[in-house]
Amino acid sequence: MEGGAKSYGNSKFNKICGNTIKINSYNYVSGIYISCGSDAIVSNNDINLFSKNFAYGIVAEYSELLGSINNCSNITISANTIDATSSMVYGIELFSIFNVNIASNIITTLSNASYGIVGYGCYNHNVIWNDISINGSDISIITNNFDVIGTGHAGICYIKNSNNLTISNNNILSYYVLGGDYAIRFDDSSLTRIYVTYNNLTSNKFTYIGDNAVNGKVRLVNNKAYVVDNITFNAINYTSVNIYVNLNGSDSNGNGSFKKPFLTINKALMYLKNLKISNDENSLLCYPRSNPKPTQYQLLDAIATQPLGKPRYQAG
Q: pLDDT tens for residues 28-46?
């Protein structure tokens, strides 16, 4: 387990601001972790995470098991950049926290499944002006997930009696290879005084847009399609490309082909960042040379598709 900044045990008035956190871990990685704290500010941090199994950008949680005697409240999470690659990604995770402002964060993920922002048993949250782009391939690949929130895929998700939520003026693009995903999702217990307004939303392979990209019994007002460069994603076609990574490959001499694979995922990511492809259909894939099927050990059906030659996934 690897982690960046951490705050434990009934702490108050912490400020975690202006840090650059870059961590590459084999199994589990977290950027910023606040446990049983309140009156905290987490702002202007640049968080870049890579792990094989689980990645957490920013976590704030309350737990009686950790000896908390105070409610966890009054937390501001703003102007952070979170870029995470893992099998399961939680961009911002909140557990039993109230009075929270989440504003102007940029969250980008590459995964089998991702939550951009997810809350469990939370209330009085303002989630505004965030840019969220999550990419996932197949939830069933993820195993041994002991997080109580569980495995799932959505740009913003609130569950377990979360209420009094305002979610407004966010840009959210959710892409999931198998489809059926939502930009914003709530479970059946989270339905009291929840307002989803003036967001730009696209999900389900660019076919759910605006209000249709929201799942839950909540108040919807004037949500529209997510647009980039004045183009709606559901109007764009894509090209499929296979890029190979193998332990016997080479980052210096390889070109990502079957016969000359790259050695590392990072090299493949940089290649994807600079790749210019024509518009056709489907999505960009990355398979390891040793296995014809995507697994959690490789680039995880990398959705680095580039509409009109401009990268949607920005690596590094």
A: 999 999 887 788 999 999 9
Instruction: Sort 251 into a burial class: Cβ within 10 Å, 0-12 / 13-18 / 19+.
Output: middle
| Residue 286 C-alpha from the chain's centroid | 19
Q: Which class for 34: exposed (0-12), middle (13-18), buried (19 or more C-beta within 10 A)? A: buried
Closest CA to 283 of 310, 305, 307: 305
Evaluate whether 202 touches 174 at the Cβ level (below 8 Å).
yes
Contact 59, 33 (CB under 8 A): yes
82 with 57: CB under 8 angstroms? Answer: yes
Instruction: Identify which has the larger pLDDT, 218 or 260.
Output: 218
Please name the residue that has the structure tokens 């929840």. 194
Neighbours of 263 (CB within 10 A): 17
For the four alpha carbons of 144, 113, 105 and 101, in that order, the dihedral sign comes to negative
What pTM was estimated for this model as a whole? 0.72
Could you tell me which residues come within 8 angstroms of residue 306 by beta carbon, excluding any fewer than 6 positions away? 275, 276, 277, 284, 312
